Amino acid sequence: MIPIRSVPEVLARARDLSSPALEDALGRLSPELRPLAEYHFGLADESGRRVDGAVTGKGVRAALVVLSTEAAGAPAETGVPGAVGVELVHNFSLIHDDVIDCDRERRHRPTVWSLWGIGRAIIAGDALLALAQQILLETDSAVTTTGAAAARCLAEATGEMIAGQALDMAFESLPGIDVDRCLSMEAGKTGALLGCAASLGAILAGASAPVTSALKDFGVQLGLAFQAVDDLLGIWGDPSQTGKPIGNDIRQHKKTLPIAAALAAGDGYAGELAELLTHEDLADGEVARAATLVEKCGGRMLATDEAKGRLAAALDALGRVQIDERSRDELSDIARFVVAREF
Amino acid sequence: MIPIRSVPEVLARARDLSSPALEDALGRLSPELRPLAEYHFGLADESGRRVDGAVTGKGVRAALVVLSTEAAGAPAETGVPGAVGVELVHNFSLIHDDVIDCDRERRHRPTVWSLWGIGRAIIAGDALLALAQQILLETDSAVTTTGAAAARCLAEATGEMIAGQALDMAFESLPGIDVDRCLSMEAGKTGALLGCAASLGAILAGASAPVTSALKDFGVQLGLAFQAVDDLLGIWGDPSQTGKPIGNDIRQHKKTLPIAAALAAGDGYAGELAELLTHEDLADGEVARAATLVEKCGGRMLATDEAKGRLAAALDALGRVQIDERSRDELSDIARFVVAREF
Question: Alpha-carbon distance B281 to B294, whole Å?
Answer without folding.
Answer: 18
